[in-house]
Amino acid sequence: MSAGLHGHVEALRTGDGGAKDAAVRALVEPAGTEKYANDREEHAANRVAIVAAGGIAPLVELARGGSAGAKGQAAGALASLAHADQKVAIAEAGGIAPLNDVARGGSAGAKELAAQALRDMGIDQQQRELRAVQLYQAAADQGNARAQCKLGVAYAKGRGVAKDDACAAQLFRAAADQGHAGAQGLLGFMHWKGRGVPKDDARAAQLWQAAADQGHAGAQCNLGVMYKNGRGVAKDRARAVQLYQAAADQGNASAQYNLGLLHEFGRCVAKDDARAAQLYQAAANQGNAHAQCNLGFMYRFGRGVAKDDARAAQLYQAAAGQGSAIAQCNLGCMYGYSCSAVASVYTALLSPRRAPP
Description:
The protein has helices at 3-14, 17-27, 34-38, 40-52, 56-65, 68-83, 87-92, 96-105, 108-120, 125-140, 145-157, 165-176, 181-193, 201-212, 217-229, 237-248, 253-265, 273-284, 289-301, 309-320, 325-336, 339-349. It is mainly alpha-helical and 357 residues long. The protein folds into 2 domains: 3-123, Leucine-rich Repeat Variant (Alpha Horseshoe); 179-353, Tetratricopeptide repeat domain (Serine Threonine Protein Phosphatase 5, Tetratricopeptide repeat, Alpha Horseshoe). α12 crosses α13. The longest helix has 16 residues, at 68-83. The chain is globular, with a radius of gyration of 24 Å.
């Protein structure tokens, strides 16, 4: 094994987050890429070297707790290794659970790679979910808050168990009582929707506040909505802006979209089309259909960005593909009318459908 490969494996074991990310990228390209297909012999040698250096365990650990990008890279590496008859070693290193997590919640490419690894290991989706529930239950019975939260999600979504909102809420409460921010956020959602617990906006706001105080971006965004609309708390748009900003700074797409709306319409912040477009772009990059639609509008009429009909159509198409009725309508207008005709009727037909926040 080359000194370089040995160094990369060692970085997986002992390096910081950035070093681990770089190491996994250097070791194995994600399976299925063009480069991978063209360099099969090189990658086969790399796989042998990784196994010989004891690299499976640190790859599993990276898939479990690394950055989003590193998780995907690690899943690709493990998928490659699973395909190369390292299934037992991956399972013994505890690789099934993190691969299962990536298969459920990673990026599109990472999901596919993790699912392929699990298929190569002879584990189908239903088996994975059943096994995950068994493991979560065992840990939850010992009071593990993270497991209680994960098991609650399984019950809320009907994954590996029958869907049961009441049971999900009970598990979220057990974890929330231990200060688990994710569970506080989820229990707040259950109270907001009245799923498995009485509908109670005030209780939802209390739980989101507890999670927001721990820096939970989703709770910060949700609590911002409550303050903006005066639900469960006194109406306070300035506080809503603070919460949206805190969540947006952490990359929360919904908060970026909500803050973009406020800037576009000048509510509690200075009206600023350029800033609105920046925020919509950040959210659109994460697949937020509302942001894609609104950013398309900005490009269509050159508000905060240079006018660009082609870019507007792309954004409308992306949002329309996710079922956005407004984007479908807007895109239809671009197909059905000349540019001048669209501009002349847009204010009358479409602006009312984009009511200010």
